[in-house]
Design a protein that fits this description.
The chain is α+β, with helices and mostly antiparallel strands. It has five helices and ten strands, in the order ββαββββββαβαβαα.
Length: about 190
C-alpha cells in the first residue's frame, strides 16, 4: 500500500495500525503469509453447511475467534434445492463484492481518501449446460461478472477504480488458481 502518514481513523480504518502493519510486513515479509480455512458438510440435496473459524496469519494461529461463522448453501427450487441459503456461485459474487469494497476502503484510507458510502451490484452469467455435462465447450463457471459501484467520495472514479485492483478475490476469480482435490472413501453403513 502506498500511503501517506495520516494517523487517526479514515473510513472506519485505523490508519496508524494499518501503517504499522505495512511497516512490520516490509521488515519481515514472512509475516504476510496467511492460510484461511473452511470446513463443509453435506446435509441433503443441494444443502450443505460450511464453518469458518481458524486461520493462520502474522506468523501464528489466530485464537481470537471462539465461535465459527456458519454459512448455509443450497440451490433455489428451480435448481432442485430448498432455498435454505445462497447457492455457491452467489457466494462467489458476495466474496467478490466484499473484497472489492474492503480493498477499496482500506487503500483509500491509506491515501487519505474519504469515502462516504459504497454500494455495489453484481451480476454473473452462467450457462448450466457446462455444469450439467451437456457440453464440453461451455464453461462450467461464470462466463462474465459485472460489478457496478456507486461511491460517495471526492475522489475520481478513475482513482477509486485503481484501488479495486488490490482485491485478492478479484485476483482469484480473474486468474487461474491451482486447486488440488484429494478424496478418501469410507463404505456406507
Amino acid at each position: 500500500m502506498s500511503q501517506t502518514t495520516l494517523g487517526g481513523v479514515i473510513n472506519g480504518v485505523d490508519v496508524d495500525r494499518l501503517e504499522a502493519t505495512i511497516q512490520t510486513v516490509q521488515k519481515s515479509p514472512s509475516l504476510a503469509t496467511c492460510q484461511f480455512r473452511a470446513a463443509n458438510r453435506w446435509i441433503d440435496g443441494g444443502h450443505n453447511r460450511s464453518t469458518i473459524q481458524s486461520f493462520y496469519g502474522a506468523g501464528q494461529e489466530d485464537t481470537l475467534r471462539t465461535k465459527p461463522f456458519v454459512l448455509e448453501a443450497d440451490e433455489p427450487p428451480v435448481l432442485l434445492g430448498k432455498d435454505l441459503g445462497a447457492n455457491p456461485v452467489e457466494y462467489v459474487l458476495h466474496a467478490l463484492a466484499a473484497c472489492l469494497t474492503t480493498s477499496l476502503v482500506y487503500h483509500a484510507a491509506a491515501r487519505g481518501i474519504r469515502i462516504g458510502s459504497v454500494e455495489s451490484r453484481l451480476e454473473g452469467d452462467l450457462d448450466l449446460q457446462g455444469f450439467l455435462g451437456l457440453s464440453d465447450t461451455i464453461r462450467r463457471g461464470y462466463k462474465e461478472i459485472r460489478v457496478n459501484f456507486t461511491i460517495q467520495s471526492d475522489a475520481s472514479a478513475e482513482q477509486l477504480q485503481e484501488l479495486t485492483k488490490f482485491s485478492p478475490v478479484h485476483d482469484i476469480v480473474s486468474n487461474p488458481v491451482p486447486v488440488s482435490i484429494s478424496i478418501v472413501t469410507r463404505p456406507t453403513a
